[in-house]
Design goal:
Elements: H1 12-28, H2 34-72, H3 78-83
Length: 102
């Protein structure tokens, strides 16, 4: 017995390919009946919804990863970068501070 609920989820690439196939059939006029045309249009709409869901889930995963990384390796602020600069502080010779004293 083929139970569709146990079917493994399809990938984004699979749905993208399916959508291209359906769009090609629609654009090339390969569909002979109005009923079949509407069925393919509905199927294409369903594929688009599945692709959007997959992309939203991927975005959420990336945000979680980014949040986790920023908590363990916080990005230093501009001021922190400036104060932690690798450039050495060079002292100016005393004679350049006040040239009027000569």
């Amino acid at each position: 017995m083929g139970n569709k609920t146990n079917e493994e989820p399809k990938s984004y690439e699979y749905y993208e390919h399916e959508l291209e196939r359906v769009m090609s059939e629609l654009e090339e006029g390969k569909i002979e009946t109005l009923d079949k045309l509407i069925q393919n249009y509905e199927y294409g709409s369903t594929i688009i919804e599945k692709c959007e869901k997959i992309l939203q889930e991927a975005e959420m995963r990336i945000q979680k990863i980014s949040k986790r990384e920023s908590m363990t390796n916080p990005i230093p602020s501009r001021n922190e970068l400036h104060t932690k600069s690798s450039m050495p502080i060079v002292a100016m010779p005393d004679n350049t501070l006040n040239s009027e004293e000569k």
